[in-house]
Amino acid sequence: MRKAGTIAAAMLVAAGVLTSVQATAYTVSGRHIYDDAGRIVQLKGVNWFGFETTNYTVHGLWARNWKQMIQQIKAQGFNAVRLPFCPTTLRGVMPTSIDYSLNADLAGKNSLALLDAVIAEFDRQGLYVLLDHHRADCKDIAELWYTPAYTEAQWLADLKFVANRYRNRPRVIGIDLKNEPHGAATWGTRNTATDWNLATGRAATQVLGVAPHWLIFVEGIGDQALCSSGEPAFWGENLAPIACAPSPVPANRLVLSPHTYGPDVHVQRYHNAANFPANMPAIWDRHWGFAIASAPVVLGEFGGKYGEGHGRDRAWQNALVDYLIGKRVNSGFYWSWNPNSSDTGGVLRDDWKTVRSDKMSLLRRLWAAPSGTGTGGSTGGSSGGSTSGGGTTTGGTTAGGSSTGGSTGGTTGGGSTGGSSGGTAPALSVTEQRSSDWGSGYCSDVVVRNLGGTAVDWDIRLTVEGRLNQAWNVTWSQSGSTVSARGLDWNRSVAPNTTREWGYCADR
Predict the structure, then answer these.
(1) What is the pLDDT of residues 135-174, one digit of tens each?
(2) Residues 315/321, Cβ–Cβ less than 8 Å
(3) Taking 50 as the threshold, does the pLDDT of residue 418 lie above it?
(4) How far is CA 305 from CA 283, 340, 414, in A?
(5) N- or C-end of the chain: fewer Cβ atoms within 10 A?
(6) CA dist., res. 132 & res. 87, Å (int)
């Protein structure tokens, strides 16, 4: 482990609380998370990694302004971010790979000050934050919560440090104690050197001692014969042993947070089964789905390239969302916001700006599902095909825009093109595609294309069915069946022969 900036645990804990603002208390009852007003907390989450690497900051700051990136995360409909970190980040070392011409307000900040700033901005913009102790050496994911160079005592001290430092940030909901235990990690063996279940109890005592209102997210382990099905499991996925050895974490603080992946990350033998993906619900049931009836189960990581990698991954992700909807689980943290995850890609394309609209449609279908007691079966009985509908929706659309030349354009009718105010060639076209439909509601993707010869700042008016409950990549308002929408700072201008994408979900 890198020794730079090593500080005694007592000094770290003494660093104190960053703000005196009254914290929000979170609690668990049954299968739900509640805030201190008694409201169910739905976590529409994404992972944004980088603080756990030797860059010691979130990634993408070489390409984007950090606050604009957070604004875009929120605009997509996410309300929560899982934020991985590693111990060296907590020591206040200097970060790398930041373009300070794009992020001038970060100049001179060390890694801990950057972590403070990012968390504060998430909090300010109303996004929940789940901290995640991800890598002990900032390079590799260790099997256990300690390594030869990073002791359990250091792990416990670091968990206590972050709990003490961020306990009064109202939107920081808690901490994921250790990313992806696997290999030597066991559950229920009573071996204090390897029993992850026992270690979580020791860790929870440290965290809750200074942040009693936080939630403790506990992942599973990898393959283990004891109280397990014997099927291969992804790192952190196997929670089956909890049925034999219950968690020592207080029940009103405990959130189970397994990780699960498809063939883009690793091809398991069940991914090649003749009845794939219809075989997957029974496997998820055995690994972690059985626990949904009695505790909150919030996937800490799931994702993949979704059709741009292994041929079966798209079917796997569709089946997983079907399964979660059938279980009435609508929270989770998608991996990842970053496009530079080699085996999954990201919500963003490699330009760090363009959003994968197909991935967002999948997530919005999950988010729109009701929560509560489910039947346990997957919905739709799909064998890998998406339950999303297709086709361009009907209804009226009016699009307008202004360019340096002062022309405006309009379109009427779903996706048709209208003429500009001068009666010349049309400036904008608008097409709308229904991405999912579950009877009582639906989601749609909207594409605005500039057909003119100059850049246009766009706004449109769209006739919709029902009432919008969310929209992304736009500011919007609704009056009756008419929705007015315009681009945000980062996507308001659309160049000639290019498009801007946005979308919405609505209740009928």
Answers:
(1) 999 999 999 999 999 999 999 999 999 999 999 999 999 9
(2) no
(3) no
(4) 22, 11, 30
(5) C
(6) 11
Tell me whether residue 432 is one of the annotated catalytic residues: no
pLDDT at residue number 491: 75
Q: What are 130's two structure tokens? A: 């789940």
Indicate which residue of 180, 219, 237, 501 is catalytic.
180
Q: Which residues pair with 215 in a beta bridge?
A: 174
Q: What is the pLDDT averaged over residues 358-374?
A: 88
Residue spans in the chain of domains classed CATH 3.20.20.80: 24-381
Chain centroid offset of residue 343 CA:
16
Q: How far is the C-alpha of 470 from the C-alpha of 420, rounded, in Å?
A: 30
CA dist., res. 237 & res. 288, Å (int): 7
Distances (CA, A) of 427 to 406, 422, 453, 475: 11, 11, 8, 21
Does 143 participate in catalysis according to the annotation?
Answer: no
Reported pTM: 0.75
CA dihedral sign, ordered 467, 374, 241, 203: positive
**CA 407, 408, 410, 416 torsion-angle sign:** positive
> What is the per-residue pLDDT across 455-485, written as a single tens digit (0 to 9) for each?
888 888 999 999 997 777 788 899 999 999 9
Give the closest residue to 393 by CA, choosing from 482, 463, 458.
Answer: 463
CB 43 within 8 A of CB 330: no
Q: Chain centroid to CA 98: how far?
A: 23
User: Which token pair is 209?
Assistant: 């001692």
- Are the C-beta atoms of 265 and 320 separated by less than 8 Å? no
Are 95 and 110 a contacting pair, CB within 8 Å? Answer: yes
Q: How far apart are CA 386 and CA 436, in angstroms?
A: 9
Contact 329, 389 (CB under 8 A): no
What is the Cα–Cα distance from 325 to 440, expressed in whole angstroms? 14
Residues 4 and 93: beta-carbon distance below 8 Å: yes
Distance CA 497, CA 416 (A): 16
pLDDT of residue 169: 97
Question: Where do you find CATH 2.60.40.290 in the chain?
Answer: 397-507
Which pLDDT band holds residue 437 (cuts at 50, 70, 90)?
A: low
| Number of Cβ within a 10 Å radius of residue 270 | 16
Model confidence at 399, pLDDT cuts 50, 70, 90, reads low
CATH 3.20.20.80 fits 24-381, yes or no: yes
Residue type, 458: W
CA distance 216 to 173: 9
From the CB of residue 32, how many other CB atoms can be counted at a distance below 10 Å?
16
Tens of pLDDT, residue by residue over 219-274, are 999 999 999 999 999 999 999 999 999 999 999 999 999 999 999 999 999 999 99
